[in-house]
From TrEMBL:
<keyword id="KW-0547">Nucleotide-binding</keyword>
<dbReference type="Pfam" id="PF00005">
    <property type="entry name" value="ABC_tran"/>
</dbReference>
<dbReference type="GO" id="GO:0005524">
    <property type="term" value="F:ATP binding"/>
</dbReference>
<comment type="similarity">
    <text>Belongs to the ABC transporter superfamily.</text>
</comment>
<protein>
    <submittedName>
        <fullName>ABC transporter ATP-binding protein</fullName>
    </submittedName>
</protein>
<dbReference type="InterPro" id="IPR027417">
    <property type="entry name" value="P-loop_NTPase"/>
</dbReference>
<dbReference type="InterPro" id="IPR003439">
    <property type="entry name" value="ABC_transporter-like_ATP-bd"/>
</dbReference>
<feature type="domain" description="ABC transporter">
    <location>
        <begin position="2"/>
        <end position="232"/>
    </location>
</feature>
<dbReference type="InterPro" id="IPR003593">
    <property type="entry name" value="AAA+_ATPase"/>
</dbReference>
<keyword id="KW-0813">Transport</keyword>
<keyword id="KW-0067">ATP-binding</keyword>
<dbReference type="GO" id="GO:0016887">
    <property type="term" value="F:ATP hydrolysis activity"/>
</dbReference>
Length: 314
């Protein structure tokens, strides 16, 4: 559905997006995560045909953003990070305006407005002025406008930015519904747990480069070469022999309370398995052996170490 090929954007000698290549299958929800300035918005602006790449291309449903931008725009719905609404219009008038912009007929617009308002749970607000809506409602109305022409691909740049917890949940539920409808969705955020709830795959951007890509488990694995193994021992025995065993394997060991050891380990899963087998052969008093999985906040801190740009240039 979406093929990103060596996509690059230069501002002078600075690379805002650096040779990005990625394939996103039809019906996939793909999330871009990274710090402010990592290159997310620049990437989205190029995919949405609003910014010409310095080099490279993006092909959406067989159409090139470089050579067939007009055709690409028919297939995408773009929600920018600064969504913008027209306060002096009612919700249905606002959607009518965008339907006309998409060159829809009035009959098509009249049919589609209740459909998209139902999708974003705003049907009871269709005659309300936009200025009277809450921020979360305005954000969902902006999402509704991107759906007016029933696009195949949705490009959503920080759609939950600035929302309170309830509004975030409401928006998440809408996105889950769109996912079930088979829409291909590209979404960005600097909050990894926010994306983990709805995304099939995630790409990590750091200083314009895609440094990791895959599902959450594989992202954690790619970014977490240094593991901590939690070794649970029988509490009433002397632990010195066990500590000495791991030190002889050239591993750093920290003794914890409740008969626990934390062993720092950088090997593969196969090497981890071999370590456990050798510990059991040594008849050590081990009753538990597991890897301490980094939580999503830990992973995010590892991901975002490189975000240094001013947000305006992202």
């Amino acid at each position: 559905m979406i093929e990103i090929n060596n996509l690059t954007k230069l501002y002078g000698s600075f690379k805002a997006v650096d040779n990005l290549s990625l394939t996103i299958d039809k019906g996939t929800v793909y999330g871009f995560v990274g710090a402010n300035g990592a290159g997310k918005t620049t990437t989205f602006n190029m995919i949405a045909t609003l910014l010409q790449p310095t080099s490279g291309d993006v092909v959406i449903a067989g159409k090139s953003i470089v050579n067939e931008s007009h055709e690409v725009r028919k297939k995408i719905g773009y929600m920018p990070d600064f969504f913008g609404v027209y306060d002096q219009l009612k919700a249905n008038e606002y959607l009518n305006f965008f339907g006309t912009s998409y060159q829809m007929t009035q009959a098509e617009i009249a049919k589609q407005i209740p459909v998209v308002l139902n999708l974003v749970n705003l049907i009871d607000k269709r005659y309300d002025y936009v200025d009277d809506l809450s921020r979360g409602m305005k954000q969902r109305l902006c999402l509704a406008r991107t759906l007016m022409h029933d696009p195949e691909v949705l490009i959503l740049d920080e759609p939950a930015s600035g929302l309170d917890p309830r509004a975030r949940v409401e928006l998440r539920d809408v996105l889950i519904s769109l996912k079930k409808m088979g829409k291909t969705i590209i979404i960005s955020s600097h909050i990894l747990p926010e994306l983990a709830e709805i995304c099939d795959e995630i790409g990590v951007l750091d200083n314009g480069k895609l440094i990791a890509s895959g599902n959450i488990a594989s992202i954690q694995q790619q970014l977490s070469a240094d593991k901590t193994l939690i070794i649970q021992l029988i509490s009433e025995v002397d632990h010195q022999e066990t500590i000495q065993f791991f030190k002889e394997q050239q591993l750093s060991v920290e003794r914890q309370a409740n008969g626990q050891l934390h062993v720092h380990f950088t090997g593969s899963e196969q090497q981890q398995q071999q370590l456990l087998l050798e510990a059991l052969r040594a008849n050590l008093p081990i009753i538990g052996f597991m890897e301490d999985k980094k939580n999503l906040e830990d992973v995010f801190m590892a991901i975002t170490k490189g975000g240094k740009l001013d947000e305006r240039t992202e």
